[in-house]
Amino acid sequence: MSYSVGQVSAFAGVTVRTLHHYDKAGLLSPGDRSHAGYRLYGEADLVRLQQILFYRELGFPLDEIAAIFKDPRANPLDRLRERQRQLSEEIARLQRLTEVAERAIEVQKTGVSLTPQERFEVFGEITFDLSYATEAELKWAGSKGQREAMARATAHTREDWRRLMGEATAWRADLLAGFDEGEPTDGERAMDLAEEHRLHISRWFTSCPPDMHRRIADDFVADPRAFALVVPPSQQRPGLAAYTREAVYANAARHGAGPADPEGAR
Length: 266
Hints:
By secondary structure, the chain is mainly α. Residues about 260-265 have low confidence and may be disordered. A hairpin with a 5-residue loop joins strand 2 and strand 3 (about 40). The chain contains 13 helices and three strands; from the N terminus they run βααββααααααααααα.
């Protein structure tokens, strides 16, 4: 029994244009023609169409499907296994994006509502980088310290943020002065500044023992977005992030912290 292109289109759920494209691409040429020259599809053609649609559903490009059909020695199982691996990776990537979106929604809800003018008055040049905050949420997911920091940040009032940022601004001025004057990172002045920063985090966000403070300082060097939350780019100097990190490490050693643990968590 033969079927017209319209009939095949209807029960296969593809457009006539798609069937014409498959014909032109050499994927599915109907085995017969009517007296008027119209395409007619037989049972073998329908079986092949099912195979094409199956591969398309799995995301195979048309040229790869054509290669499978063209080479009788090709092993479709190997290609299916490879596609399974790719799909598994894609599922994992999409799952992570879902988590990022969920965290982004949570992060976006934090903080106090401010007008643009009030936000500049409170935060100055310090900008809230949603992408970095979201990645930090994922990185420290399940951490007690991260949960506490987010909860306390959410609860801060407008006045809390003014006081918090006022402290940070004063501390930043002292840090820049020490750096510009060549204060050694293991000197008392630099270590005191590191300790002040650690206590600032504990006071406003979450308990910050020296080992956790070192992890935070590592981010200052590894990710410019992290250091920009402490010193805006317009005020940064070459080497300042590393200087701050070294001062934090020196202060941690002064307080008896053990060797840094790269696998530690906040």
